[in-house]
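**Polypeptide and fold**
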Amino acid sequence: MLSSDFKEVQGKHEGERTMRQKTIVGLIMAAGAALMIAVGGWVMALIVLVLICFGVQEEFHALAQAGHRPVAWPTWVGMIVSIPLTLLIGTKMILPVIMAICLMTMICVIFRSEPKLDDAVLSMLPMLTVALPGMSAISFTHIAPKALQVTLITLMIGIPCMADAFAMWVGKAVKGPKLCPTVSPNKTISGAIGGVVGALLTSILIGVVAYLVAGDARPLLPAWYVYLILGILGGVVGEMGDLFFSLVKRHCGMKDFSNLFPGHGGMLDRLDSVLFMAVLMLCYRLMSGI
């Protein structure tokens, strides 16, 4: 009995230490993200490139651990080339770079002594799910005026991050039926709904703050209904990003992509929802002509 009580108390203390660790790391990451957004430009582009490189490496490593033979070098070359091309020429360079990566990857796999279709497809997975979102995010770093740039990048990062937080809080408080137990056993339907609500509230708050501080740039900011659409879609897209990378980890037999962030896992464990949101924001930018 005493042993059981001791284990219960020990487990409670361990959980509290883990939560404190997660909170500290989370605050440091939030401060770093705020500083990165404020600086913008080439500095932010280089920071994003470094983060994306960690993410691409983690996904290629996970696929290799699962027994696949992915071809990585076309994705690495494409990412490096995409930064100056995207910053100097614009978002229209993203599609040609993606097509070139796909072509080189297929050539490398097809001309192997034992070519396999799953190797060809999975070789392009990090490019589509990590490198492409990275290119999308980098394309926002030179938008003018500065107020519009900061607003859009804050939406890109803030919506999925707060959606994750709301999903966790609501899921723990309400519980209820599981959302997708075969992929992520801990996620609940109530948490997913809470995440979308949190994303919507965050988007509205960002829009209000942007309007108050934008000054002469107010006419260039998104219309009020855009914040509603991005909030709702961002909550859903972010949740799908989280579930997708959980599926990758389950396929590869991993709990976390790495232990880069204590208590938080790897880079992809932190950026999963943001990556999918970056592509949504790129779609908005292309459709709105920004």
